[in-house]
Structure formats: structure tokens, C-alpha cells
Amino acid sequence: MIKWVKEGRDRKMQENEIDTRNALDLARRFSMAGRRALVTGGSVSIGREIVRVFAEAGADVAIHFARGADVAFGQPDAAEEAVREVRGRGRRGVAIEADFGRAGEAARCVGEATGALGGLDVLVVCASVQQRTPFLDLPADEIERQIQINFRATIELLQAALPGMKANGWGRVLTIGSINQTRPESDLAVYAALKSAQHNLSFNLAKDYAAHGVTINNLSPGLVATERNRWRREDAAKWAEIQKNSAPMQRAGQASEMAGAALLLCSDAGSFITGIDLQATGGRHLGWQ
């Protein structure tokens, strides 16, 4: 009897050791240990989850944020909280406030992130704005604001970050797109057009930088529960109907579900993937309804 108990205990210990070894081997595949990342719009929602998973994977992270946007979302301390989370995981974290509505701010953001972290290996372009307004009613100043934040700032970020990645022979760029690139809504025409332009930009640059160890990809979320659409969730019945009609999965995605895709594309696990548009839409991109 004692022998059986001992054999059972030894077998369990061996199984635990194997499980631990397997978990470590899997973690190494997706490791970002020693990498230095900048996540724009990293204080809330999808950006925040990407910051969190990068830190868990071992990266130091610079978190870009816009104070006015965080205040509007009712989270004035979101950036500072995100930095604490990163540091709580044993990584370096820094918050960088920048208004991408002003020319030059995006380039400054890259410069500050590079200085704070001692270099930049990964860039995630997540910050954007949108306004649900019929196309013919969209005022000129709002159109200009969206062009500046959603596209010109992206160009600035890329022009500032790519030379260093090319010189180092390693880099990851991930632009966050939208299902609206291919399944547009009439009230988001300009937003959708700019997301399409951003995707086209990343697609073109991917070919140019592939030989230098730099991958450039686009991630297009479908309907995801975020701070931006929190107002749509205030009426539970309406939100349930929106989700049902949003995709074959008939539910909204969670920001954490986008972070896993980002980790794949920004770690060594995605080292042979470049120039793609990863549709994380619950199937909405399939032309459903």
C-alpha cells in the first residue's frame, strides 16, 4: 500500500514537472523578454490589454495616452495605473502624454519612448478617434481632426520608429485597423477610409522592411466592448441585439482577445508573418448579413 502511494506521488510529481516544462517552452515561443515597446492609446481598452500582455511576456513598455480622452472616459488616472501594472510585472513602464491632433507630437512620442527605454523594438499604433455622423453632416474641422490623428500621426510614428528598427535588424510594427475597412458603416465613412489608408500604408512598408528583420502587420478588430462604445451598452436589450447582429459568433469581442493576436504578431512567434491584415471579427469579415 505504501509503495503504491509513493509511486502515485512520484508519478504526479513527474507530471507536474512536465507540465511546468511545457508551459515554460510555450512561454519562450511568445516571449518578448528584453524588448522595448511603445503602445499608442495604451491607457484604456484594446491598447491597455496589449500593454498588459506585453509586460507579461517580458517587454518594457512606453504607454502613450491623451489625458483629455481618458478624462472623457471617466478614467483620468488610467495611464498611471497602466504604468503601475507594468512595473508590478517587473518591467519598466513609462507614460507619455501626447496630443496626436497636433503635428509633431507623434514623432516626439517616439523620441521620448526611445529615450526612456533605451531603444524601441516594437510599435503598436492603437490610438485613433471616430465620430458617428452621417457623411454629409460631418464638419470640416472634424474631418481634419480624424485625418491628423488617424493617419498623419501614423505616418509620423512610422517615420520616427522604422529607421532604428532597420538599423538593429529587428522590429515589430502593428497597426490597429478595423472591420470598417471592409465592412463600412455609413456613419463612419471617413473613419473607415482612414483605417483603409493605414492598412495600405502598412502593407506597402512590409515589403520594404522584410529583409531587415522588421515585420509590419495590421490587426482589424470587429465589434469589441471598449470605452469608446460604452454608451451603446447602457441599454442592455439594445446591446444584446447589436451583438446578435454583429457577426456569426453573435457576440462582441473582448479587448483581451485582441491582445493575444497582438502578442503573436509582435513576438518571435510571428517572426515569419508580415504584411497581413488579421481579422479578429468573430466572423464579421466573411460577409455575414
What does this structure look like?
The chain folds into two domains: 30 residues; 256 residues, NAD(P)-binding Rossmann-like Domain (Rossmann fold), CATH 3.40.50.720. The strands form two sheets. Strands 3-2-1-4-5-6-9 form a seven-stranded parallel sheet, with helices on both faces. Strands 7-8 form a two-stranded parallel sheet. The protein is globular, with a radius of gyration of 21 Å. It is of the alpha/beta class and 289 residues long. It is built from nine helices and nine strands. Helix 2 links the parallel strand 1 and strand 2. The termini are far apart. Helix 2 runs parallel beside helix 4, helix 2 packs across helix 9 and helix 6 runs parallel beside helix 7.
Give the helix/strand class: alpha/beta
- Overall, the morphology is globular
Mean pLDDT level: 94
Q: How would you name the CATH homologous superfamily of the largest domain?
A: NAD(P)-binding Rossmann-like Domain
**Class of the largest domain, according to the CATH hierarchy?**
Alpha Beta
Number of helices: 9
In CATH terms, what is the fold-level topology of the largest domain?
Answer: Rossmann fold
- How many β-strands, per DSSP? 9
Question: Reading side by side through the largest sheet, how are the strands ordered?
Answer: 3-2-1-4-5-6-9
**In percent, how helical is the residue content?**
40-55%
Could you describe the largest sheet, including whether it forms a barrel?
A: 7 strands, parallel
> What are the segments in which pLDDT stays under 50 over at least 5 consecutive residues?
none
Q: Nearest-angstrom radius of gyration?
A: 21 Å
What's the CATH architecture of the largest domain?
Answer: 3-Layer(aba) Sandwich
Q: What's the number of domains?
A: 2
